[in-house]
Design brief:
Elements: H1 21-31, H2 41-55, H3 65-78, H4 96-109, H5 114-134
Amino acid sequence: AETMSVPPFSLDKPRYDQSKWIGRTKHFFATTNPIYLFTSDSALKDSLDKLQRFKEGRSAPGTTDEDLWKARTMRDAVVHPDTQLPIPAAFRVCAFVPANIPICAGMLMTAPTTFNVLFWQWVNQSYNAGFNYCNRNAG
């Protein structure tokens, strides 16, 4: 099995080369991983602490570049970049596809009665409004 090299950690530079398609794809798949729907408060705090210690030049002994990249990816997937607050799980980018599966199924598979059409359009627009608000540019 081929082992992938881990680039030196940086708080400023991306892990993957964003000038290449494969680098942008790897970044997208890393930050949209649905596993981040289940991030606990303590795991997020550990990741943020790890990044803060790195920033202050006092990383814990044994902390690897891979550990720091994982912490940064968790932060990028869970914490709003402007407000620095955790995004509610249902409105994180990693929730967009899983949340839209039942919405699309409801829109496509229910009988097209007036109630069903209005209900599923309301559900869809409500979710989109929440998602867009939680991921807004708050700067």
